[in-house]
Amino acid sequence: MIKTAGLCFRYAGGGRNALSDIDLEINDGDFFGIIGSSGAGKSTLTYALNGLVPHHFRGDFAGEVTVNGLDTRRSAPEALARHVGSVFQDIDSQMLASVVEDEILFGLENFAIPREEIERRVEDSLASTGISELRRRSVSSLSGGQKQKVAIAAIVALRPAIVVLDEPTGELDPQSSRRVFEILKDLNEDHGVTIVLVEQKIMLLCEFAKRLAVMGSGSLILSGPVKDVLSHAEELEEAGVNIPRVAALARRLEERGLYQGDVPLDIGRARIMIEGILCDASF
Ligand SMILES: Nc1ncnc2c1ncn2[C@@H]1O[C@H](COP(=O)(O)OP(=O)(O)O)[C@@H](O)[C@H]1O
Ligand SMILES: [Mg+2]
User: Is residue 231 part of a domain?
Assistant: First the structure.
């Protein structure tokens, strides 16, 4: 479980707080999405969860962050890495090896995983991310989507309880983006891994996440179950977040007194909503 209480952080030399008074709880097994405009503090929040803030990025830190009961200020990032695996925004800077399997081996050897266990972990992590056939490929020959999967496989092999990913689909086409989300969903549902995901693709996020947080100017503007967050259209707009068009349509129908009910998140549900309205109307 992740808990932040009164978390504030200002980068050394930074003009304003990158994080202001963040109170957040992320439960075990959650699929937690974070959205917000550029500069809102999303990446900084992920650094606060894996200990890079305050251990790597220096600045003024206040409040408390605990990850599985460990206070991040008192635990080294290497110790926290056993609980939280991180996939960073800049994927190329994260890749250390030139061959895919070495990328996965590197972390396992760093964690001093026993030799006999290593082979099983490599095979399992490649299989669970659907890239067993890439095992001996050179990293530089991979597409963006394939590299993302390798980065996720290398983290999964370490079996952290929590995986934090910062805009993992930023460079990917819609199909590869969906595939990454599906891999995360399998990890979450089949292996109980807690997923914390910063993402701009709001439709995908709303489809896959269980809970959402919206950030703006370093603050947590909204957080809660996806449908509850989407019902706050004005705050979302102020935070520069475009809600899915089907959700916006539902809201307009609601304003006109034509609809009351759950916010539809996909075309199928929107269709049911509209059919319901047409049925009720006396044409
Ligand atoms: N290494 C850094 N040093 C100083 N300021 C930074 C650094 N990284 C980010 N910031 C500042 O912190 C704020 C939040 O940035 P960031 O967490 O990267 O936002 P986001 O990921 O939502 O785009 C921004 O004002 C940004 O300029
Ligand atoms: Mg960022």
Answer: no
Q: How far is the CA of 245 from the centre of ligand 2 (A)?
A: 24
**What pLDDT digit, counting tens, does each position of 154-185 carry?**
999 999 999 999 999 988 889 989 999 999 99
Residue 272 lies in domain:
244-283
- pLDDT for 282 equals 63
Please say whether the beta carbons of 83 and 2 come within 8 A: no
Top mutation candidate among 35, 44, 49, 52 for ligand 1, by most atoms within 8 Å of CB: 44
70 part of a folded domain: no
Distance CA 180, CA 205 (A): 12
- What total of structural domains would you count in the chain? 1
What span, in angstroms and rounded, lies between the C-alpha atoms of 99 and 269?
44
Instruction: Look at the pTM and tell me if it is higher than 0.90.
Output: yes
Residues of the chain with pLDDT under 50: none
Q: Using the atom order of ligand 1, give the atom closest to the CA of residue 41.
A: 17
Q: Is residue 199, in this structure, part of any structural domain at all?
A: no
248 within domain boundaries: yes
